[in-house]
Amino acid sequence: MKKTSAKQAAATETVAGSTATGTTPAGRAPAGGTAEATPAGGSAGEAAANKKSGTGTAPAKKAPAKKADAEKAAGTAPAGRTPAGKTAAKKAPVRRTSAKKTEAGTGAGAAPAGRTSAGKAAAKKAPATGKAASTKPSTAKAASARTSTAKAPAAKALVRRPAAPAKKAVVAPKKATAAIGGLAPAKTVAPKPPRQESRTALVRRARRINRELAEVYPYAHPELDFENPFQLLVATVLSAQTTDLRVNQTTPALFASYPTPEDLAAADPEKVEEILRPCGFFRAKTRSVIGLSKALAEEYGGEVPGRLEDLVKLPGVGRKTAFVVLGNAYGRPGITVDTHFQRLVRRWKWTEATDPDKIEAAVGALFPKSDWTDLSHHVIWHGRRICHARRPACGACPIAPLCPAYGEGETDPEKARKLLKYEKAGLPGQRLNPPRSYLDAGGIPAPPLRAE
Question: Catalytic one among 244, 338, 371, 374?
Answer without folding.
Answer: 338
